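User: quick one - fold this with NAP bound?
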Amino acid sequence: MKHFAVIGDPISQSLSPVLHNEVYYQLGIKASFEKIRVQPHALSEFMATHQLDGFNVTIPHKQTVLPFLDKIDEAAKMIGAVNCIFGNIGYNTDWIGFKKALQLNHVDLNGKACLILGAGGAARAIAYSLIQSGVSSISVNNRTQSKADELLDWIQSFSPNIIKTKSPEIIANCTPVGMWPDIDSSPNYNINKNHILIDTIYNPIETKWLKIGNELGAKTVSGLDMFIAQGLASMDVWFEEAISEKVNIDLCKSVLRQALDSV
Ligand SMILES: NC(=O)c1ccc[n+]([C@@H]2O[C@H](COP(=O)([O-])OP(=O)(O)OC[C@H]3O[C@@H](n4cnc5c(N)ncnc54)[C@H](OP(=O)(O)O)[C@@H]3O)[C@@H](O)[C@H]2O)c1
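Assistant: Sure. Structure tokens for the protein plus NAP:
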């Protein structure tokens, strides 16, 4: 029996065990998945003593765990953060999750003008995903302008022609604005029915921002799809096979919806 986990601090709110246990159930895999609170001062000891077959890493360890790893895969190196560890090698499956979520929702990123709201870790993984998907332009709006400039410089360092302020077709919210319990807030940007809106937040599944978008008639993608896809991409790494292609994603979604409804 294999043992997996997600580590972070705080961690009690994580829905990862619900997702992973549902996949084990669907595919008849004998494995366990737990959430482990690892406080910042305890990360070093955890990395030296854990017996896990693989684990996800969430806030606040996505960058601080890097020095404890033997190797970091190419994308995680570029992004500067990992969320998935296997054999003491670090991977980033957030950018894969974003890309897969859009594929599942039939959103073609190629040639599109994109706007990222936020400039933290998720924004960076999503910027990487947008570049890999051949978008025509990326602009960034962030509360702290210096952080937006930092992200724009980083994007420009390996994709010099992509930074343009074009009217966006696709907008990705990479801030926690609208996340439970702050459910009446919404990012400050004028949207219309022609925009494709992607949220990274999955609690609530339909944020106020997405609700406004849906009412206007815009296409919207919930953060739940990205959450599921990053988890499945992590399983592909740990089991060294395409678990993500064997899973019934609609069933995963409905189990996660129930779990969110009951918290
Ligand atoms: N669905 C998924 O699989 C998935 C995966 C990863 C992350 N996420 C979600 O993505 C979101 C961002 O996570 P992160 O790791 O990127 O966090 P982060 O590194 O802390 O970055 C947060 C960003 O949001 C901005 N921000 C925070 N509070 C704000 C406010 N009240 N008004 C305006 N801007 C605000 C920050 O701006 P400043 O620079 O001004 O501080 C920063 O740019 C979270 O909601 C997280 O749950 C989802």
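One thing worth noting: The radius of gyration is 18 Å.
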